[in-house]
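Escalated from tier 1: nicotinamide-adenine-dinucleotide holo job.
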Amino acid sequence: MATLEVPIPVVPIEPKVDKEHPMKCVEWHGKKSVRVNTARPSPLITHPGDAIIRVTSTSICGSDLHLFLGFMPGMKAGDIVGHEFMGVVHDVGDDVKGFGKGDRVVAAFDIACGDCFFCNKLKLFTCCDRTNPSKEEEKLYGDRTAGFFGYSHLTGGWPGGQAEYVRVPLADMNLLKVPEDMPDEKLLFLSDILPTAWHANELGEVGPGDNVAIWGAGPVGILSAHVANFRGAGNVFLIDEFDYRLEHAKSRMPFVKPINFKKEKVYDIIRKDLPYGPDVGIDAVGMHYAHSMLNRMEIAVGLETDTPEVLNEIIYTVRKGGRISIIGAYGGYVNHLNVGAFMEKSLTMRGGQTPCQSYWPKLLEMVKNGELDPTIVVTHEGSLEQSTHFYQIFNDKQDGCIKVVMHP
Ligand code: NAD
Ligand code: ZN
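Tier 2 regenerated the structure:
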């Protein structure tokens, strides 16, 4: 088969750099250690399909916390982090057809080739076969995901977007041209969390009248509720332990029914309103929030890599024949998964990293005409130099932090 003859990755990962022009960027230096380097050489066009983006806005994602907390394997000291970014095209390679210098663009967090079976046939751009050479990931999953910006060497080791300049490989595939007359904040989240909220609803097949319960009132959970409402959902429950996040969501979206799982029993509250349980359960939490002594201990000693607590609560709570959407990121193994309840209740479970490019045309239109407003999650704005502080308050849930936007 032709695919086997294609070298992987199809483009070099390490960029050529310009030592004369140092830039600012956020580097990972170990567990709970990220800091700005102001003297990193800036990237140059390395392959004719590249574009160099001068970043105007970048944000911190819940996925960055998996790296920050040391849950994601394959990080190296000095890696540039960040995968949510937008800006202006600073330079383009000779093969780039759709973009020119000065264009305003958003990048996808996932790096796709556009040509392989998974990109071309299935439009599963996060499953691209040609942008991530990681043997470790292949060993762990039997396959490789696409490469992701700033998200460890397990996903290719691509330098990330919390930087003044970023090289975007295969630019025609991985950039979206955006209007000049809209503020960055409206557009930036097309790089990840808006398509992700949409994907969460797609995986759960949320449609008119469906009752939806969403675990996690972080930026992804909040936007998933926003999208569910747009798609005509009935009841929308939002579950977290941080009242400030639930209150923020409620203030922007009065239809939301908040539940604090530390104060109330999630199953009891939902089943009081919906005796059968919700049609759809969305996991917008992911791997690192272990609460029980047992799971914390098992993770600490390496008996499991991730916690099953949220998945078990969803399996338990959704109605028989219900649908589960896993949008929260998982890295490896969990113990004690209630697979019996999953099977006996005739449930469906789907998951995935979001193929942003698939949803771009539709979502850009919806943001332009005001049907969706991703800015409802933003609580903090500042400079890249404040990134150490921003990572800390985002992780520790301090100062009302939900979503941070940084300008290099
Ligand atoms: P976040 O960390 O800010 O939000 C997670 C929220 O879940 C927190 O508010 C936390 O208090 C809450 N939580 C923890 N344990 C819980 C429990 N047992 N029940 C209910 N809530 C609980 O992160 P985010 O930016 O909103 O991202 C959420 C998840 O989505 C992360 O795992 C991230 O990696 C993932 N993500 C996936 C994709 C994708 O393509 N699939 C894209 C972006 C983000
Ligand atoms: Zn993200």
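Residues 61, 63, 83-84, 109, 192 surround zinc ion (ligand 2) (CB under 6 Å).
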